[in-house]
User: Fold these one by one.
Assistant:
Number 1:
Amino acid sequence: MMAIPPLLVLGRPGTLLLRATPHGRVGRVVLIAARRGLRSRPARVALHPGFTIPLFLLSFYGLYLSDFAAWALAGWGGHVALEVTFLVAGVLFTAPVLSTDPLPRAQGHAGRAADMIVEMPLHAFFGVIVMMATRPLIGAFTHPPAAWGVDLVADQGVAGGLAWSYGELPSLVVLLIIFARWQRDDARRAQLADRIVDLHGNAELDAYNAYLQSLDRRPGAQA
């Protein structure tokens, strides 16, 4: 949920689909369906921060602090379903803040950084809750084989520490990528503005300089 989705999003699967799919016959149908699906209202909702951030946090707090996780982890199918849920939630959260593919809702660098800054402390707080818990939180893990010699509370404390430290590192890397892109785009816009000024001049600056020259030519200005 924390490490895999950024790698998938950085792979630009949307752009890869558009470039690799043939534009004839079946490929054309796939491309049209992909474009319509991406521009649809459900896609806009699914990729909106108002949906992705609560979903991302609900995957931790709602599952692990309720009885649902214990029920799901009791069987192989439930365990796999939880893994898929975590992966989907991670991709939905990461795509708006990291993707360069054409998304239905364009978000600026400031908004992307804000989403990460909101998520990071809430995710870290979940790890602290697990670390400080005095009893096992997941019923499915309360009966390990006696030969393992596992201290459930101590083992859970280690898991909370991993959720805190391991989870925050990918978030920090994503935040650094956002800031690097932000700085690069600002530098590119500044260079473009300088080129436009060099080619066409700056009307406002030229008018201001002409105004200063007119003041300098006024009688008594030298006094």
Number 2:
Amino acid sequence: MLGPIIQNILNALQWGSFYSLIALGYCLVYGVLLLINFAHGDIFMVGAYIAFFVATFFLAAVGLPGWAVIVLCVPLTMALTALVGVTLERVAYRPLRRKGAHRLYVVITALMCGLILENGNLALLGASRRLFPTLVETHVYNIGGVAVTNLKIAVILVAILAFVFLETVVSRTKMGMAMRAISYDKFAIPLMGIAPDKVVVFTFVLGSSFAGLAGLMFAMSYPVLDPYMGALIGWKAFIAAVVGGIGSVRGAFAGGFLLGFVEIMVVAFFPSTYRDLIAFTILLVILTYKPTGLFGVARFQKI
């Protein structure tokens, strides 16, 4: 009886890790700009495709072994995905921000950016799914009837390390202090000698790079890529960030794992077709009693 429970917990930790890595990007952008970047799920998709082409190049053209490809693939994927995120900020969001456009128009622009990334991928690469190359041999460890793979352990560890890194950056560095300050009063920040655009770019670099990392880890675990793979998982990660407390790094991290646990436990006891229905109903109940999310704090704004 204990074995299946532990197995489900490990599965939930793996899915929660994907949600958490993506939710952290939502959290960072909202914490600085009070903007919900709905294109973030598609940046995750772009990261997975970038990882595919980088890995394929080093495996086929250069002939490197799998472990060396991973060593090169992680920083390159994060850097190139961050470049995509910064480009979106520079081309789509910054002009609206400088003109003082209403936040609603920025949100609509974010939705359009996501559609452009999806359909641009479809136009350039076609509708055929891509099979991500095998970089490491999957080892299954059977401990007391509980099966766990090396990839599953790696995904969970990566999510934990990403959370520790981001929490340290946000709470213990000058740039992190600037990120927190700009969310409170964006007009006073330039008077204190801080360039708001630098803070915004840094935020998009962090958020997008970890979306790319999530794309790489997801592709290694579930090696079938398609242009719309980021849509549903992106929305779920956004919901996880809201339930955890949008704008809170700890909230995004906890919300991702909470959603992972709810989904896996629902599938363990009910038909899989009920997964989203029951999972989102539970999250809706949580928000009914805790509208600000688990770690969120009510904010007051002068109008």
